[in-house]
């Protein structure tokens, strides 16, 4: 490949990569939900954690009821987020409930 072709391919490839990562979100209003959506899309877990605490909403409410541009916050982050895997892990794990059953206690009560 000639150096001109190589330079052209490199330029086109870098331009496509830059356009994909150049997504920027602008808040239309200053509502709590909008701020949560912006922080979630930015992909900064610490900033999102702080925004969740400041919102006054429960973690479960945020993960299941907050919508961003008409879709659930989890789907929004998956499509548009900068760090979707880590952010989804953070948001989704907060909706799971864990219960512990004492097996030894239950078997003693049955006898």
UniProtKB/TrEMBL annotation:
<dbReference type="InterPro" id="IPR022193">
    <property type="entry name" value="DUF3718"/>
</dbReference>
<keyword id="KW-0732">Signal</keyword>
<dbReference type="Pfam" id="PF12514">
    <property type="entry name" value="DUF3718"/>
</dbReference>
<feature type="signal peptide">
    <location>
        <begin position="1"/>
        <end position="22"/>
    </location>
</feature>
<protein>
    <recommendedName>
        <fullName>DUF3718 domain-containing protein</fullName>
    </recommendedName>
</protein>
